[in-house]
Amino acid sequence: MTAEANENKDQKKSLNFIETIIESDLETKKHDQIFTRFPPEPNGYLHIGHAKSICLNFGLSENYKGKCNLRFDDTNPVKEDVEYVESIKEDIAWLGFNWEDEIKFTSDYFEKLYDFAVKLIKSENAYVCELSPEQMREYRGTPTEPGKESPWRNRDVNESLKLFEGMKNGEFEEGKYLLRAKIDMSSPNMHMRDPILYRIRFASHHRTGDTWCIYPMYDFAHGQSDYFEGITHSVCTLEFEVHRPLYDWFIDQLADSEYRPRQIEFARLNLTYTVMSKRKLLELVEKKYVSDWDDPRMPTISGLRRRGYTPESIRNFSDKIGVARRDGFIDVALLEHSIREDLNKKADRVMGVLNPLKVIIDNYPEDSEEYLDAVNNPEDESRGKRKVPFSKELYIEQEDFMENPPRKFFRLGIDREVRLRYAYFIKCTHVVKDDKDNILEVHCTYDPESKGGKSPDGRKVKGTLHWVSAKHAIKSEVRMYDRLFTVENPQADKEKDFKDFINENSLKVVDNAMLEPHLNNAKKGEQFQFERMGYFCVDKDSTTEKLVFNRTVTLRDSWAKIKGK
RNA sequence: UGUCCCGUGGUGUAAUUGGCAACACGUCUGAUUUUGGUUCAGAAGAGUCCAGGUUCGAGCCCUGGCGGGACAACCA
Fold it and tell me: How many Å does it take to go from CA A419 to C1' B39?
């Protein structure tokens, strides 16, 4: 009974506006099953903003036991490339979504689209126009002023037919002719002012090669492709809202049954401090500000993956941000919370020192060493334990020692006692410095009774430090990637030189980090939580096979705040 | 000067047929802790853009303002 009550409670979880539409369509039997699609243009890598759309479209079909196509909207060969097709497939699969049947391409429908265009010419709903780009602009009018009709608007049907065929057969140079729909040049909606259907492009297409030299425009391809595939709910972003009347206009001309796909718009994802403009991301890659599309500083899915983000964290993030029709900015802190939440459960803990400071235990036997038990993941006992080597000379983090500690500093200082995690209590006796006053060595004594980190007399220490044995430690490179962009609202400054968006300190490389030896066996892509420093992802250097760690996200760092105050 | 969309704590999303605005992130306390992490407990923070109207009662309905966004590529 309570279980049932709980179930009801879960079901009552509020629906977003798209789910409301879908449930209503299912209830009224408008559709027996829903069918969505994710339609990227293969002209760049997918980023976190696309992830929202992917989770939405594929998620909807999963939740309502429907279907979802992956369709490449490849109607502009000059911008598109197979490299992008491959990366997009990989990213979607990595996120854990499955598309229905084989992958679709808008280019698969070029023939059908051509036939439909011919039909429109015959029904006097389309004509071949020969206005130049400049004239087009002039004739189009502005959002507040009506346009004027093309002199070719009432061209004879047979003449249009013949010219259109000539366009297809490559008889005319680019720009000579256009196929346009005949709708309404005085419509307040610019998209209804005799929109272009086909343009001539002598460009080789990544799939159809040189078969075609005329290519359909987005508006003439998208809705029809939805129709051909049986899509019920065509979910897209808000900027396509003004295209909807045109979308419907074409469907009206095309549909010969009750069935119609419905375009539904939602607000695209904006993230604070993050630029997601494809144009700018492309520029970053082309001008070598970053290594590639998957550079861990990039907001691309592949960049986040290399940085150590998990598919689950991105899907959870997507659930949390919700779906609506109002534009806003999601705080990037929510994204980071999502990955911390996930990694906190999954990532093994490990000790490492980024900026080593040598500690010598004076009363520890010279050539002795021992292996101490360390828990891999306190959240998950099944992750087991590991042995960590301990010896007379150790490294600790430079910032874990202060000669003149402030009031709330709980770590090592002269005459202070702290615990070395999983090892012993140590107490600092003195330090050795060079002539420039830099600390070279911190000398301590240890309490042999406190092995494992507990003292039999029950005395407490306030601080617990991570450490690494100097002679056993592996030296490795650690790269700390930060978000590349640090402008609060990048979209607000569209025209600003994007170089201003680049955070010069977005990458710090530490090449003398000392780590626990067992990390030698770490696999590429594995994530670890370095004690007190954050989450890191193994990213072996492909040229040298050197062990490299990328910072996924830092821990919540209260100490930094205390220090700042 | 046009058409369309949107306006709920700092941020994002909720609120059954109108019924004293909820959740998450963030922030701040406190407790526990072999990570200044995690976990747990708690607090602050909006009266729903404004003004009218309908109603016993409005974030939800109506009217009028104000504010923000989209639309003038042979891009998608």
Answer: 22
